[in-house]
């Protein structure tokens, strides 16, 4: 039996984290209700007010595939320009990259799956074709002076193929490691990941690219996103994708739920003394706006607790005056 004082794992964890907000893209791409462009802009402005510095605002994909985000150019034209906030958008190919550049973005995110069936359903390409497209996008972006991140989907599991073997992930990362992406965002597209698997994935991928180049993009379908984020953090990952109120999913991944909710992530990090530069109260205001615009209660737990608490307080003060 082990005796003695357990060591506090928090002491060796990163003290600062980048939160990469994907609600306006990953969230809204999967909602039945398509928001008006003006409402998307209001939501993004509320996210900026909360202190978020990296926001994926839309997608330059085929409007036939994702009609909810067909207004990317118009939306970007409406957003306030700030030196301290980076807007980015998803691009599937060179045509998408050119649209992003023409819209004035200095950053874009290309995406591919590590499993064949999801790749076919999502972008109508094999994994090898998608890697070759990602290579072209990286090259053209560099020539245009743009930064690019690359998403890897179905890293933990695939809706069509089940659990993804870690060697498969490694094989794909090897082909992407030297293409000049500033970051690889590892996606648990359908939220099937558990902490043991996360530890193994982060450990293997960090043998190929630096930890600062890894982001975790966790969907919360089975409630394990925060646990997986904590494991990633404990291993030195410092970028986490999240979505306001837990909006999100993937229209070509049946069963994918929302992303890890931004407020849940920030609440946990704040409580651990990890700096994010984000104001939780203002994030709740953004979440409340997202909820109003979408027209339904969102899944974010901190958001619901904060709104419930506020409702109770309002009820107490109403009872006190009457
Ligand atoms: P395709 O039909 O095979 O494309 O779609 P194509 O190259 O044959 O072109 C067909 C038409 O689309 C042509 O127009 C092209 O010009 C046009 P037409 O001549 O018929 O009038 N087209 C475009 N239009 C606008 N912007 C473009 C573009 N490219 C071609 N960029 C394609 C292939 C990749 C375009 C399509 O499959 C597509 O747009 N897929 C996107 C699907 C998507 O957005 N999925 C969700 C995002 S991924 C995700 O959510 C996962 C992530 O969150 C991480 C995780 O959770 O794991 C990132
Ligand atoms: Mg996603």
Please outline what is shown here.
The protein has 322 residues and is α/β, with parallel strands linked by helices. The protein has 12 helices and 10 strands.
Question: What are the defining features of this structure?
Answer:
322 residues; eight-stranded parallel β-barrel; binds 3-hydroxy-3-methylglutaryl-coenzyme A; alpha/beta; 10 strands; binds magnesium ion; two-stranded antiparallel sheet; TIM Barrel; single chain; globular
The fourth-level CATH homologous superfamily is Aldolase class I
The helix content is 40-55%
Global geometry: globular
* Structural classification: alpha/beta
* Main sheet: strands, sense, barrel: 8 strands, parallel, barrel
- Highest-level CATH class: Alpha Beta
Strand order of the largest sheet: 1-2-3-4-5-8-9-10
CATH level-two architecture: Alpha-Beta Barrel
Bound molecules: 3-hydroxy-3-methylglutaryl-coenzyme A, magnesium ion
What order do the helices and strands follow?
A: EHHEHEHEHHEEEHEHEHEHHH
Detailed description of the structure:
The chain has a single domain, classed as Aldolase class I (TIM Barrel, Alpha-Beta Barrel), CATH 3.20.20.70. It has twelve helices and ten strands. By secondary structure, the chain is α/β, with parallel strands linked by helices. Strands 1-2-3-4-5-8-9-10 form an eight-stranded parallel barrel, surrounded by seven helices. Strands 6-7 form a two-stranded antiparallel sheet. The relative contact order is 0.14. It is globular and about 70 Å long. Helix 2 packs across helix 3, helix 8 crosses helix 9 and helix 10 packs antiparallel against helix 11. Strand 3, helix 4 and strand 4 form a beta-alpha-beta unit. Helices cover 43% and strands 15% of the residues. The structure holds 3-hydroxy-3-methylglutaryl-coenzyme A and magnesium ion.
């Amino acid at each position: 039996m082990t005796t003695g004082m357990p060591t506090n794992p928090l002491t060796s964890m990163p003290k600062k984290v980048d939160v990469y907000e994907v609600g306006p893209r990953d969230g809204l791409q999967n909602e039945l209700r398509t928001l008006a462009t003006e409402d998307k802009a209001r939501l993004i402005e509320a996210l900026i007010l909360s202190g978020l510095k990296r926001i994926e605002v839309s997608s330059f994909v085929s409007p036939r595939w994702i009609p909810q985000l067909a207004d990317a150019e118009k939306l970007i034209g409406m957003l306030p320009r700030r030196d301290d906030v980076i807007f980015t958008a998803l691009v599937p190919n060179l045509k998408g990259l050119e649209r992003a550049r023409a819209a004035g973005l200095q950053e874009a995110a290309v995406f591919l799956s590590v499993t064949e069936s999801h790749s076919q359903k999502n972008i109508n390409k094999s994994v090898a074709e998608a890697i070759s497209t990602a290579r072209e996008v990286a090259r053209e972006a560099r020539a245009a002076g743009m930064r690019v991140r690359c998403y890897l989907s179905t890293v933990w599991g695939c809706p069509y193929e089940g659990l993804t073997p870690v060697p498969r992930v490694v094989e794909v990362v090897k082909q992407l490691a030297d293409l000049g992406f500033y970051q690889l965002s590892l996606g648990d597209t359908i939220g099937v990941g558990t902490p043991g698997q996360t530890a193994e994935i982060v450990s293997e991928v960090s043998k190929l690219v630096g930890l600062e180049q890894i982001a975790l993009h966790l969907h919360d379908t089975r409630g394990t996103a925060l646990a997986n984020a904590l494991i990633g953090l404990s291993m030195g990952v410092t970028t986490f994708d999240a979505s306001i109120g837990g909006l999100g999913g993937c229209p070509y991944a049946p069963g994918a739920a929302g992303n890890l909710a931004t407020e849940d992530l920030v609440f946990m990090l704040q409580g651990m003394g990890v700096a994010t530069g984000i104001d939780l109260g203002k994030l709740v205001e953004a979440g409340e706006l997202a909820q109003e615009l979408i027209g339904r209660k969102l899944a974010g737990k901190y958001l619901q607790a904060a709104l419930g608490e506020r409702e109770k307080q309002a009820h107490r003060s109403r009872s006190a005056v009457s």
